Amino acid sequence: MKRDIPLIITFLTGFLCVIAFFIPHPPFGDLQQRFLVWYAIVAGFTMILGLDSLVKYNVKKITQHKPGWQYSYVLLFGLALVLVTGFQSWFKYNTPFELRSSFMYSYIHIIVPLQATMFALLAFFISSSAYRAFRARTFEATLLLIAAAIVMLGRVPIGEMISDKIPLRSDWLLNVPQLAAKRGIQVGVYLGGVVMSLRIILGIERTYLT
Amino acid sequence: MGIFDRLANLDRRLIFLVIGLAVAVPIILKIKMPIRISSEVRSAYETIENLPEGSVVLASMDYDATSAPELTPMFRSFLRQCFRNKLKVVYTGHLAIGMPLAQFDLDAVTEECGAVYGVDYINLGYRPGFTAVMIGIGREIRDFFAVDYKGVPVDSFPMMKDIHNYSDIALIVDFAHGQTAEYWIQYVVSRFGVKMFACVTGVMAPTLYTYLQSGQITGIIGGLQGAAEYEVLVGQPESAAFGMPAQSIAHLFILAFIVFGNIGFFITRRKK
Predict the structure, then answer these.
(1) Are B210 and B228 in contact (CB under 8 A)?
(2) Does residue B1 register a pLDDT over 70?
């Protein structure tokens, strides 16, 4: 029973969504819409689940003094700060997104710079790893190296300053060989997706239940 | 260690320093470079230009601060172009952490353009559910967005009176740093036949060229280069156009490092 009910729910909703795609009229369209709203509600609750899991994991890490346990304090403090400022702003302005609110202040002055800094550091690591990885060891690696150089130059103004042919070559690389390979992969991936969806709807694939 | 060994094994701190300078110096010296307009950006720009006055554009904000330098200039230019052409902007998003950031830009540009909330634009906020929300709007937007981001019923806003589903939306523009643009295309464009173009990060742009070639999207504004081109087309070059020289010089130095590395690698390999 524990296994059968989820399988029946999956079959009915999956089958209904397929029918509603081709026949969006009542009752199929209405039912599908209802299921989509339910899905959105369930997705909202998964955030609470995620929050619960995050807190439990970090509290456990602190109590057991696992490696890096000190950072868990920072995480829990940050979580509490966002929750407190969010609720405070909500009560005061009816929305946390009011520019004068404490939530927006902490968002703009803490979260945004932290996120931006973490991502900006990538530029340095990518440069260093490109220098180490792009070695023309084989014919294929040489082709990749040449293509990368043309695209890197073609996507910035200096490429056109060097030669007006570089952006054209870059566009060609993106539109012809890149797309040919990508289309082949995409067709394979999506055919696989259709097969997997059918397997799930028909109850053949059950690994999602474990 | 010989000079070629050193070339093949440069200290990464030296690379960090050079890249840091390559980015900082052009910004400090305010170097300017000509911006070439690509066909995919021009096509995106013209999609908006060709919309009749009063058309509704749905903007989906699916990025956060990690991609803001690339996507914020696109979003600001997009808003300017929409308000200049008297289009209505309905704004939502699928990334909760990015919504306040977009709100910040929205406030700045709407003030500059004199756009009125509820008349020229509306912020519907974030709803969980992702693809379910995308498909659900196809039937009735109120099933997911009965209230705006401040909890005010959407029916109390004049611009929402005639907006119910994708039949009332002339264009979708997705500002994304992940795969959201592909989901919009797969779940909405192909199913409901709405026009769309994508504003994405440089990393994501190549993944969308298939959809551009097949005509499923009308344009791609990709990366800082795309943002700079769009700023130039809209006639207000700002941070993206200003940042392109830095990106150009940085690319040039990365290529120089790769060339030096390969010279060192080949000569030391030949010696062995």
Answers:
(1) no
(2) no
Across the interface, do B68 and A116 touch by the CB < 8 Å criterion? yes
Specify the residue for token string 């909330």: B117
Nearest by CB to B151, which of A94, A111, A130?
A94
Q: In a mutagenesis test of the B interface, which of A36, A48, A102, A175 is the best target, namely the one with the most B β-carbons within 10 Å?
A: A36
B39-242 adopts what CATH topology? Rossmann fold (3.40.50)
State how far the Cα of A27 lies from the Cα of B219, in Å rounded to an integer. Answer: 37
* CB-count exposure of residue B53 (10 Å: 0-12, 13-18, 19+): exposed
What does the domain layout of chain B look like in residue ranges?
3-24+247-271, 39-242
Contact B127 A40 (CB under 8 A): yes
Buried b (16+ CB within 10 A) or exposed e, B191-214: ebebbbbbbbbbebbbbbbbbbee
Q: Which parts of chain A sit beneath pLDDT 70?
A: none
Across the range B203-219, mean pLDDT stands at 92
Q: Which of B64, B99, B129 sits opposite A40 (nearest CB)?
A: B129
Task: Please give the angle made by the CA atoms of A46, A48 and B64, to the nearest 5 degrees.
Answer: 80
The domain ranges of chain A are: 1-66, 68-122
Each residue of B111-158: pLDDT tens digit? 999 999 999 999 999 999 889 999 999 999 999 999 998 889 999 999
The bridge status of strand B88-93 relative to strand B121-126 is parallel
Answer for the pair B107, B150: CB distance below 8 angstroms, yes or no: no
The residues facing B197 across adjacent strands are: B173
User: What would the mean pLDDT of B64-69 be, rounded to a whole number?
Assistant: 89
CB atoms within 10 A of CB B86: 13
Check if B206 contacts A (Cβ < 8 Å): yes
Q: Is B148 exposed, middle or buried (0-12, 13-18, 19+ CB in 10 A)?
A: buried
Entry pTM: 0.90
Nearest residue, CB atoms, B66 vs list A44, A115, A135 = A115
Query: Is it the case that residue B272 has pLDDT exceeding 80?
Result: no
